Amino acid sequence: MTDDTNARIDALVKDNKVLLFMKGTPLFPQCGFSSRAIAILDHLGVSYESVDVLQDQGIRQGIKDYSDWPTIPQLYVDGEFIGGSDIMMEMYEAGELAELMADKGIAKAG
């Protein structure tokens, strides 16, 4: 990964309270895992930003190196890597994801 790509990813992660690196967009997710991640965030009703990794090969590979996590989507909250869609689902079902959002003061979308 180039330093430039790493710096861009780092800036995105730090500049957005809730950020989802995904395949596609929230309106048109391009894989089932990204679709599920969006559904979870939408159900929680939180404001979030997304990055379509299909639009940028550097970020598509770079985010895997950045997080040391092999798959996309990837969720970051308050600059911290949370996990992919399976971890999001487990946390959501246990009530932990809603609790995390509340603890971090993440505002409801509205």
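Above is the first protein from milestone M3; the second protein from the same milestone is given next.
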Amino acid sequence: MLRAGFPAAADQAKEHAAEARGAWKAITGEAYGSQKAESWAPERLPVDVSQADLDAASTELVDLEADLEEAQQTLGAHKANRDAEAGRAARIAELQELAALVTRRQHKLSNDSADLQHWKDQLAAAEAAATGGKQGLIHDMARNLSDWQALAERSTSVEEENSLVSQWHTVDTLDCTRLLLDRYVQEHGSLAEAGAQADQSLARRAPEFRTYVDNLTRAVENDRRDLAAAEQAAGQLAELQAQAASIPSAEAIANAEQVIADLRQQRDRLRAKVESLRDALTTAQQFEQLKATAANHHRDVIEWSLITDALAPDGIPAEILTGALEPVNNLLAIQSAAANWAPVQINPDIDIAYDGRAYGLLSESEKWRCDALLAIAIARLSGLRFVTLDRFDVLQPSARPQILGLLRTLTQGGDLDTAILAGTMKEPMAKVPMGIQSVWIAEGSIVASISQQQAA
């Protein structure tokens, strides 16, 4: 902040000091005082507190809070169950009516399914009669087996390749044929339906049978849907009846509320105990740390306050200015004495004074003396060693040789390399001192240039 100037840096240091005081107050909980802060220390607890004490109390608090939460959830469920009793009763009555239809709908589904199967068989027989018998490999094989059975019934024996003659009733193949035909009849109907001759009267009823099958198919689907709804209602009814049976009494709810209230009081007391133990343990553990931290903040306050004072106008800036002005004022005093003029000085407020009087109160010639002596001092201190002074004719004639003498002394002594003194005069100088060149300018041109040697 010094780059922004001493005032900005001083304001920042003051702000840091205020922050340090605020930090000290936050640590100690007390208002800051410079004397109080010198020896401040936190109070020690009258009893010792261990981490084990805090852990035990914390564990007890966790268990108690878990019990309280469980009790609150249970009570909330009981109240919700009680509050839902009116709606549940109406729903139970509604479900009872639907659930009572389960047996009736099961019977209807069974009867409709049996009817459907019957008419499916009738439709299959009619369609088979319309096409000259049932079609397909299995039906052809059944008819072929029937022909073999008829052949066996028309003959008494069979002669095999080795000239062995066997009675048909002793051949196992015939028994297998009979068993297969019995199974076919069980699964696909009589061989008469599979026969090649068509029953035209039965075939004409196929559309009628198909209508029965379609209607019964829809009826069976509706039966299954209605039965599922009734069975679902029965399940919901059992669940609602179980809920109704578990409704607690008003006295039980009141007792549960009292238990919860007691648990809350115990929890609050235990919370306060845990917080107290935690604070006490923290204070005990941080006694020295708090003391050191507070001391650091106090030291920051002191140091930032010192910096603020140092950066104030009457601090370092004043010292710097005084140090910078001292050689200038010393040089001005020497030059004033050499010119036999009243002393010129620059005060700490950077005001110029001539013989103790302010610059604004000086006459024109006195101001010129001040300007001349300041310009000469700057030329010497800066190392430029060159000065130009105009309008020296503002000086009274008796003071003009004084400035000439001062400039000649400084150039001859090596303090200045060149000094030009200009003014409006009535006539050229009659006598030019040694070491000075006189140049007369008229209408912008040099008319005469006379040195001391030429004048001699």
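Note on the second protein: DSSP finds 15 helices and nine strands in the chain.
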